[in-house]
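Entry 14. Structure prediction run on the chain below.
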Amino acid sequence: MKNSANFCLHTIVSLAFLIGVTLLAKEPPAQVIVWPTSGAPLVRFAFGKFKEISSISNMHSYLIETTAENLSNKPIESAVFNLYLFDKAKVRVGEGWISLNNVAAGQSVRFDVTVNASGTPFSLELAAKSLPAGFGPPPPPRTVSITVNSVPQGAGLKVDDQDMGTTPKIVQLGVGKHMLEFTKEGFNIGHFPMEIGPNDASGGSVSYELGASAHDTIELRDGSVLSGDLDSLSGVDVAVRIGGALQHYNRNQVKRILLVERATPNP
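Output returned:
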């Protein structure tokens, strides 16, 4: 009888232990997040255990014991952070938010955060929603979108010695001075200085005309650009010598012709 009682007691304890382990395995681990993730740390968040307060089908509401410590030398007058929840597969399953008000430099505050999740959350991430002036990492440098073109088109474009592709090209330029460089076979390298002001808006454009071509330039209406020597021109035909071979084009195919100056042979 005594052995039976001991067996039953051992079984109950084992079952209780297994149930506890199972519940513990489902519970998201405590986490510490230092914000921001790069640069000088400003706030340390410590998230404790998740306490489920309600559930409907697969939707669960949790209460998280949270501590926030102001690591900076400035008070946090008012700041709001979005809190995102992810499962083990890094799929976002829920969210909540955190509000900090009047937290002095070096001070810690403790509070509970309510979050909703579909499924079992495993990890957390933070994103600043609103911050007091001068608090947090500096914003990314302001840029302005500019369309850069050339005559003729299809020139290689560099901005501050960085390859940007061929014209026409939309580029992002920061506030300050820049140097645009244009290269195209048969033309001299072109340089165009440009300055972006702090109040300039996106949507502008600049066009640079390449000069000193070694050959005539014939621009067709379909956007093609030919580099060769114009041989003859009539009301219906344009003859161009390209690479030594004479090619004929219908006059209506030609949009523009740029002629280069040639030395007149002595008689």
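Residues 216-258 form a domain with the SH3 type barrels. fold (CATH 2.30.30.100).
Filed with the rest of this week's runs.
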